Amino acid sequence: MAESDELPDAPDAARAVFTGEAWPRARAFAEMLAGPGVVRGLLGPREVSRIWDRHLLNCAVVAEAVPEDAHLVDIGSGAGLPGIVLAIVRPDVSVTLLEPLLRRTTFLEECVEELKLDNVEVLRGRAEELVGKRVFDVASARAVAPLDRLLAWSLPLLREGGQLLAMKGERAAEELDDATRQLETYGVRSAELVTVGRGKVDPPATLVRVVAGRSPARSAQGARRRRKR
To answer: What is the pLDDT of residues 184-195, one digit of tens each?
Structure first.
């Protein structure tokens, strides 16, 4: 059976997750993903029928792992998943959508304006370009890169004690094992699998949560200063 290219009605779970002002914003964002998002190639046509379950709700539950009043950078934000969704459900969080491609940042800017999200900024660029310029409490990422590469991009942007929340699927445990050497190199405090969204989404979402030790960028700077003395 061919999948419908029409946006389905929101499931009951959506009203439980997107409450108050988040509800009309979530509906409007779903329509933007199903319309301009598909037309511009940011989302595949087959994904329209799964926008609520697979994308919006799956991203919204990541908010369970985000501390209050955090400054969050969404690396490789793409169509705004999970960054825009997190900004919708967590107005206390300041969200930076970081994306290198112009057509995507244009879409993100349009979404931010349409949804009136005053807790969001859109930056065109790559993570490595922000090292030494910006520091965040949280870095989020979804379907951007394998964990070993994601560590190299995200950890230099995190304050000591900040955390990477990487949305991963069935290979989460395997990717975590494969990144052991990188985790040791960066001196992280901890790395673990976290399940969010129990009772809200089926199946629950799996995150790899990595808590940063001393920023690799600042550690390198400190080592250079010590060698000069």
So the answer is: 999 999 999 999
Supply the pTM of this predicted model.
0.90
Which residues does the annotation place in the binding site?
76, 81, 127-128, 142
Contact 62, 87 (CB under 8 A): no
Residue ranges at the known binding site for S-adenosyl-L-methionine: 76, 81, 127-128, 142
Phi/psi of residue 220, nearest 5 degrees? -65, -40
β 71-75/205-211 pair status: unpaired
CB-side neighbour CA atoms (13 Å) of 59: 27
Task: Answer whether 65's CB lies under 8 Å from 207's CB.
Answer: yes
What is the rounded distance in angstroms from the CA atom of residue 13 to the CA atom of residue 89? Answer: 14
Q: Say which residue, 174 or 143, is predicted with more confidence.
A: 174
